[in-house]
């Protein structure tokens, strides 16, 4: 029984259904004023049909809804003219406000307002004394029919917009979580990749020296131990604090890594960035770390140059080595590390250029060398290698990586706490 009643009056809607139920009972007062049974039966039937149509089409859409409203409008007009009860107009005004289509709402609103005004005028024209006595209530009805649909329509529209805004905020939150996961993945790759590459190199070297030069092997294993401790500390710092790396500190670690790999390190320019946002500095630090990791792992270089050039509106960083360079087939093959560098720089409206040092100008196009240090960097790096003779005699192309980034980006300022 309770379930059937809930099909008529929806659950958890407060006192609203019971207030509207009073409007359903009220017309019977006007109907039973007539002494003849035919009028009472006709009026009762119209009330029942009106209520059934209202309930069946309350959540309907399309032709079903418009058909139900048309029937209800006809019953409302008949009740106004024959039984002097115009207050079904409140039902329809409220119901019309539920229409989502702007065109449908406008059409129904105009038709209903004209119909209510016409039937009330007709009742007055018939000079029904009882109807004239209801003039204050009729005035309230006309105001309600004029205002209630707009109020209901705008309220529901606001509810829908609020729901869409909440959905959009949830999607943005999900995207931020995904973006943060990708950032953490890149950070882990850059942090652990560099240190583990050095550990691998040192371990291989120690394995080869263990029988020939035990003292040197012990020294290499000591470096492995120290590098592992550094890697562990960096991971702890990243996971515990999610702190951004300072360029000056990162270059210090880069120099340590290169020297441990027996690669000469040269730094040109001031690593202290006075006008660059913390987030941009963190991105550049990670990119330099990845670039140097590639030098250690793949270049077979004997020398690595890092040049920092600060302009009023942007920052240029050059990483160049004298190694074997990039083979043409692999120039487009940007693995997880290089692709991560590209994505990081694009995120801050920067850019990345990678190529062989012999085929690229070491100075970005359109820039002027800011003094002697930049002039040194603009000259091609001398060819050289770890071994004596072979590579040096023939020359090696080396690899040049350009990183260009603006000092500040509005979005980046929000991330300045990193």
Automatic annotation (TrEMBL):
One cellular component term from this protein's GO annotations in UniProt: membrane
Region described as Disordered: 356-418
Domain of life: Bacteria
Signal transduction histidine kinase subgroup 3 dimerisation and phosphoacceptor domain segment(s): 180-245
Pfam families, per database record: DesK_N (PF23540), HATPase_c (PF02518), HisKA_3 (PF07730)
Record lineage: Bacteria, Bacillati, Bacillota, Bacilli, Bacillales
Keyword Transmembrane: yes
Domain DesK/YvfT N-terminal intervals: 3-151
Protein known as: histidine kinase
InterPro entries tied to this protein: DesK/YvfT_N, HATPase_C_sf, HATPase_dom, Sensor_HK_TwoCompSys, Sig_transdc_His_kin_sub3_dim/P
Residue stretches making up the Histidine kinase/HSP90-like ATPase domain: 284-361
Catalysed reactions, semicolon-separated: ATP + protein L-histidine = ADP + protein N-phospho-L-histidine
Molecular function (Gene Ontology), one example: phosphorelay sensor kinase activity
Gene3D superfamilies registered for this protein in UniProt: 1.20.5.1930, Histidine kinase-like ATPase, C-terminal domain
The EC number(s) this enzyme carries: 2.7.13.3
Transmembrane segment boundaries: 12-32, 38-57, 69-96, 108-125, 137-155
Keyword entries, A-Z: Kinase, Membrane, Transferase, Transmembrane, Transmembrane helix, Two-component regulatory system
């Amino acid at each position: 029984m309770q379930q059937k009643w809930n099909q008529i009056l929806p659950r958890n809607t407060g006192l609203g259904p019971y207030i509207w139920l009073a409007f359903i009972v009220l017309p019977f007062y006007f109907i039973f004023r007539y002494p003849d049974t035919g009028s009472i039966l006709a009026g009762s039937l119209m009330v029942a049909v009106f209520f059934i149509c209202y309930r069946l089409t309350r959540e309907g859409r399309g032709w079903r809804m418009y058909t139900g409203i048309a029937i209800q409008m006809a019953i409302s007009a008949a009740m106004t003219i024959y039984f002097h009860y115009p207050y079904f107009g409140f039902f329809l005004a409220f119901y019309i406000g539920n229409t989502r289509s702007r065109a449908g709402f406008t059409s129904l609103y105009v038709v209903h307002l004209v119909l209510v005004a016409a039937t009330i005028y007709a009742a007055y024209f018939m000079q029904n004394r009882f109807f004239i006595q209801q003039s204050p209530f009729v005035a309230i009805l006309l105001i309600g029919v004029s205002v209630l649909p707009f109020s209901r329509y705008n309220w529901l529209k606001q509810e829908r917009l609020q729901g869409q805004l909440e959905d959009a905020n949830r999607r943005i939150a999900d995207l931020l979580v995904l973006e943060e996961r990708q950032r953490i993945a890149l950070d882990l790759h850059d942090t652990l990749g560099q240190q583990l590459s050095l550990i691998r190199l040192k371990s291989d070297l120690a394995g080869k020296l263990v029988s020939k030069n035990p003292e040197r092997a012990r020294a290499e294993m000591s470096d492995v131990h120290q590098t592992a401790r550094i890697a562990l500390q960096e991971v702890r710092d990243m996971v515990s604090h999610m702190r951004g790396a300072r360029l000056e500190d990162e270059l210090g670690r880069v120099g340590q890594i290169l020297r441990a790999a027996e690669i000469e390190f040269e730094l040109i320019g001031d690593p202290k960035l006075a006008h660059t946002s913390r987030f941009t500095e963190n991105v550049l630090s990670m990119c330099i770390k990845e670039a140097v990791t590639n030098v250690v792992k793949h270049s077979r270089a004997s020398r690595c140059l890092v040049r920092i050039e600060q302009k009023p509106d942007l920052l240029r960083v050059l990483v160049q080595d004298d190694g074997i360079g990039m083979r043409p087939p692999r120039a487009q093959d940007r693995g997880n590390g290089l692709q991560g560098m590209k994505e990081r720089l694009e995120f801050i409206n920067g850019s990345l250029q990678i190529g062989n040092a012999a085929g690229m100008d070491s100075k970005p196009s359109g820039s002027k060398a800011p003094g002697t240090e930049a002039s040194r960097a603009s000259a091609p790096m001398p060819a050289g290698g770890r071994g004596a003779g072979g590579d040096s005699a023939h020359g090696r192309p080396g690899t040049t990586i350009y990183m260009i980034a603006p000092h500040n980006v509005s979005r980046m300022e929000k991330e300045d706490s990193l």
